[in-house]
Amino acid sequence: MRVAGRQIFEGRPRLFRIGLVVLLGLALFLPGWALYLAVILPREHVAGNWDVVWVGFDLGLATLAALSVVALRHHSPWTPVLAGALAAGLTCDAWFDVMTSRGDDQLFAVGLALLVELPIAVIAAVVGVRSVRIAARPRG
Predict the structure, then answer these.
(1) Residue of 4, 113, 97 whose CA lies nearest to 53
(2) 35 and 63 share one domain
(3) pTM for this structure?
């Protein structure tokens, strides 16, 4: 399999097959697992360390953003990975912010998701996709 002019899993067809089987297994397992959770989980749950979870997650997003900038600036082959992870993280952040809030807080969370988090996630995804070609270019 070729990506950005480079051979992926070159000389490692077994690793490729294992990865394919694991990802296929996950794709087949998760819908059933989600249905099971939908049936057994309580509608509400009080979570300990709520503040630590959200502060830590936002600091992780800040770290991904900073690393994406550095990688992009240096035409690093890590740029697509970091920018893609940032896009996924921002999307998850928007989802959980909206789904775990109520009343006026939920209205604020929806606005933040639509006006800030999701547009930045789209930008990060575009940067990641477009940087594949940049990272593949020979340096020098």
Answers:
(1) 97
(2) no
(3) 0.82
